[in-house]
Amino acid sequence: MAERLISLLIGYVFGLFQTSYIYGKMHGIDIREYGSGNAGSTNMLRTLGKKAGLITFLGDCCKCILSILMVRLIFGGRNPEILPLLTFYAAAGTILGHNYPFYLGFRGGKGIAATAGLVLSFNWIMAILGIITFFTVYLITHYVSLASLCVYAGIMIELVVLGQMGFFHMTQPELWELYAIGAFLTFLAFYKHRANIKRLLNKTENKTYVLKKK
Q1: C-beta atoms surrounding 206 within 10 Å
Q2: pLDDT value at position 126?
Q3: Chain centre distance of CA 107
Q4: Cβ–Cβ under 8 Å, residues 43 and 145
Q5: What is 57-118 written as a DSSP string?
Q6: Sequence ranges of the domains in the chain
Q7: Taking all residues of the chain, what is their mean pLDDT, rounded to a whole number?
Q8: How many angstroms separate the CA atoms of 36 and 57, rounded?
Q9: Are 162 and 69 in contact (CB under 8 A)?
Q10: Within 13 Å and on the Cβ side, how many CA atoms surround 116?
Q11: What is the rounded distance in angstroms from the CA atom of residue 15 to the CA atom of residue 134?
C-alpha cells in the first residue's frame, strides 16, 4: 500500500506545476480570469495564442510523463509486478494536482494534457489509439472537448481489453484496482467537462481551429 500512496503523492507534486498559470503570470494575467476560466492549453490557445497553447500542452503533458518515469525509476526494480498499477497512481496524482492545486485555491485545469502524458507513456497500443481517436474526432468536429472525452472513453475500454488479454501481467485483483483508477479518472474528466457536455448537447460549444478557420 505504501508504494501506491507514494506514487500518488509523487504525481500530485508534479501536477502542481501549473504551466498555464505560470506562463500567464509571466505575461501579466491570471489565465483563470480569462476565456473559459480553465487553466489549460485550450484556453491558453484562445487567450494568448498558438505559442502559449503549445507550451502549456507540452508542459502539462511532460509533467505526467516525468512523474511516471520517476515512479518507474523508484519502484521498477522493487515492484515490477505492479508497475502498470503504480504508473496509473502516479498519473492520477498528477491529474489531481493539475485539476486541484492547493496553492491556487484548488482551481486548476481539466487534466487532458496531463492525460496525454499518461497515454503516451503507458502503453504503445493505447498511445497509438489515443492519437488516432483524438485527431479523428477533432478534425471532423473541431471540438477539443468532444475529442478529449472520446479519448477517455477509449482509455477505459482499452484498459479492460488489454488487461484481460494479459498485456499488463498482473493478477485479477490488481487489474480490478487498475480499472477502478481508470474509471475514476474517466468520471473526473466527464465531471470537469460537464459544462462542455451541456454546450455540446445544445450545439453551442466553441470550436477550436489551430490552423485556419474555414
Answers
A1: 14
A2: 92
A3: 16
A4: no
A5: HHHHHHHHHHHHHHHHHHHTTT-GGGHHHHHHHHHHHHHHHHHS-GGGTT----SHHHHHHH
A6: 2-202
A7: 93
A8: 16
A9: no
A10: 21
A11: 22
Q: What is the pLDDT of residue 214?
A: 43
Task: Tally Cβ neighbours within 10 Å of residue 99.
Answer: 22
pLDDT at 212: 55
pTM of the model as a whole: 0.91
Q: 27-48 as b/e, with b when 16 or more CB fall inside 10 Å?
A: eeeebbeebbebbbbbbbbbbb
Q: Which cell goes with 50?
A: 498558438
Question: What share of the chain in percent tops pLDDT 70?
Answer: 98
The three three-digit cell numbers of residue 201, written as one number: 448537447
Residue 210 pLDDT > 90, yes or no? Answer: no
Distance, CA of 84 to chain centre: 16
Per the listing, cell 493478477 goes with 171
